[in-house]
Specification:
Layout lengths: L6 E6 L3 H13 L5 E5 L15 E2 L10 H19 L4 E3 L2 E5 L5 H13 L4 E4 L1 H7 L7 E5 L3 E3 L1 H12 L2 E4 L3 E7 L3 E6 L4 E9 L5 H8 L6 E7 L2 E3 L8 E4 L11 E4 L5 E4 L3 E2 L13 H9 L1 H9 L1 H12 L1 H9 L10 E3 L3 E7 L10 E5 L2 E6 L8 H17 L2
Parallel strand pairs: 1-2, 1-12, 2-9, 5-15, 12-22
Antiparallel strand pairs: 3-8, 4-8, 5-7, 6-7, 10-11, 11-12, 13-18, 13-20, 14-17, 14-19, 15-16, 16-17, 21-22
Helix pairs in contact: 1-5, 1-11, 2-11, 9-10
């Protein structure tokens, strides 16, 4: 029977979560045959390779949630992994800065949340803030020492190599045939058939579509949000990582300043609706994907609930002056000439039918299948623990009769 299958576990998606899952499976069960299908010509071409490269501390996330547990654990493990495999990284710490009095209670709430999550946090006044970041202005700040930066694309490549899995690039899955008594067979666009005993869906921006191809109802839809970035021409204005106090009613962290592993400073992202799953600009429109987003009731409920914040995000997208104005709340010295457009990313945000934006990582199981249905930021930071959890479920499915 083993020879009737091309592999034991078939992973769809070659981003950092899919590759971490393959790595975890072969570590936990040596000899397990794993094949990863990735539709692009290389790994980490979407969410993994288009973020700001931050190793998140886990300070924002509800204590006890998967995000909190996996981010805190994952940050430590990611630093260790990068050191072990000589991947560029640095533990820099970051500042979260309150620029208005109304933000001070939320800032103090983050101090408490950080302590509940076991994260080292120091409170800073204006003078101490100026010692860390002379050009940044604020009423108060907190310093989170465990935050860092790394090269996530290099991490993904190393995971692929170290996993021992067969990685097939340019393999876009268009059909899945699952038979619970036997396993799964998938067909790619070139007509290739790949058979496995268990399927793992780590398809990111397309994970809900893959779940439906498998025959499982994911109970959610991916609604894509584009995050647009600039690089700072005068990078000397920022020494490290500087974040605003996030709005708890809006599931995004706001425009922040990030000195990356290459020494450059990224500014962003905003969060605007993308007109395609891989809609990295306003001109990228895919009618079928846009239609599916608009047909999902949750999309309209999000729009009604967050229309004020959404209008502000769109304004900052189409107006560089408006984006600069947002940055100047933290960095008064910046001018529009200092901002140079950089590559955008798209966040795969799971949305329920009632308009709830899924706040935690979401992993579901079906017969002979494990689906990762919500893994936006901080999934790169948390990828090693996420991979182990998905691997545990896949190996349990593999062992079941």
């Amino acid at each position: 029977m083993r020879s009737a299958y091309d592999c034991d576990v078939l992973v769809i998606g070659g981003g950092i979560v899919g590759l971490s899952t393959a790595y975890a499976i072969t570590r936990a069960a040596p000899g397990t045959r794993v094949t990863v299908l990735e539709k692009e010509q290389g790994p980490a071409r979407h969410q993994t390779g288009r973020n700001s490269g931050v190793i998140h501390s886990g300070i924002y996330y509800r204590p006890g949630s998967l995000k909190a547990r996996y981010a805190v654990r994952g940050a430590t493990e990611m630093v260790k992994f990068c050191a072990e495999y000589d991947i560029a990284h640095a533990v820099t710490g970051k500042l979260i800065v309150a620029t208005e009095k109304s933000e001070l209670p939320r800032l103090h709430g983050l101090v408490q949340r950080g302590r509940e999550n076991g994260i080292p946090v120091r409170e800073l006044g204006p003078a101490q803030l100026a010692e860390h970041e002379p050009e940044v202005r604020g009423l108060a700040a907190i310093h989170v020492g465990s935050t860092g930066v790394c090269d996530y694309v290099a991490v993904a490549r190393r995971l692929a190599e170290a996993s021992g899995a067969e990685i097939r690039y340019g393999a876009d899955v268009v059909r899945v045939d699952r038979r619970p008594a036997l396993g799964v067979a998938v067909r790619t666009t070139d007509g290739t058939i790949v058979r496995g005993r268990v399927l793992v869906n780590c398809a990111g921006l397309h994970c809900d579509e893959v779940a439906r191809l498998t025959g499982d109802d994911p109970g959610m839809r991916i609604v894509p949000f584009r995050g647009e970035y600039y690089t700072l021409a005068r990078s000397e204005l920022v020494r490290g990582l500087v974040y605003p106090v996030p709005d708890p009613a809006f599931p995004f962290l706001g425009v922040h300043l990030t000195r990356g592993i290459d020494g450059g400073v990224h500014i962003g992202p905003n969060a605007v609706p993308a007109l395609a799953r891989e809609g990295y600009g306003w001109r990228v429109v895919r009618p079928r994907e846009l239609g599916a987003t608009l047909a999902w009731p949750g999309s309209w409920r999000i729009a009604r609930r967050h229309w004020r914040q959404g209008a502000g995000e769109v304004r900052r997208s189409v107006s560089k002056a408006a984006f600069t104005e947002a940055v100047r709340r933290l960095l008064p010295a910046v001018t529009p000439r200092d901002l140079r457009p950089a590559a955008a990313g798209v966040r795969a945000q799971a949305v329920l039918r009632d308009g709830t934006l899924v706040d935690d990582f979401l992993i579901k199981e079906g017969p002979r299948a494990v689906h990762v249905l919500n893994a936006p930021s901080p999934a790169a930071t948390a990828s090693l623990p996420i991979g182990r959890e998905v691997a545990r479920r896949a190996l349990a499915a593999l062992a079941s009769p």
